[in-house]
Amino acid sequence: MIKRRMRTIPTMVGAFLVVTALLPVLIAVAVPVDAVRSLLTGKPWMTLRMVAMAWVYLASEVVVIAVSGAQWLVLGGPFGGGRRLTDSA
Questions:
Q1: pLDDT digits over 68-77, tens only?
Q2: Domain-by-domain residue ranges, the chain?
Q3: What span, in angstroms and rounded, lies between the C-alpha atoms of 72 and 19?
Q4: Are 53 and 10 in contact (CB under 8 A)?
Q5: pLDDT tens digits for 27-81?
Q6: What are the C-alpha distances in Å from 56 to residues 19, 27, 34, 61?
Q7: For the range 27-31, what are the long-range contacts, defined as Cβ-Cβ under 8 Å and sequence gap of 24 or more?
Q8: 37 contact partners, CB below 8 Å, separation of at least 6
């Protein structure tokens, strides 16, 4: 289980940082693409929505990872013995 987390956490955080760094470029590309597409076909602006959705998804994943890590530490981290929030003292 630790092995899986060692792959997932850095991947999610790295993807969030990359998308955040490239967000101005992605928006600058998405707006003209969607404007032309909207003028030619009358379809809504999907590319810009997908860029925004990808950023929100990655941001929420990073927040959930951080909160899960904080909960793990509060419960004793590696020395918690599998204790849960609902266990009585």
A1: 988 888 888 7
A2: 16-75
A3: 27
A4: no
A5: 999 999 999 999 999 999 999 999 999 999 999 999 999 999 888 888 887 777 6
A6: 10, 14, 19, 9
A7: 27/51
A8: 43, 45, 46, 47
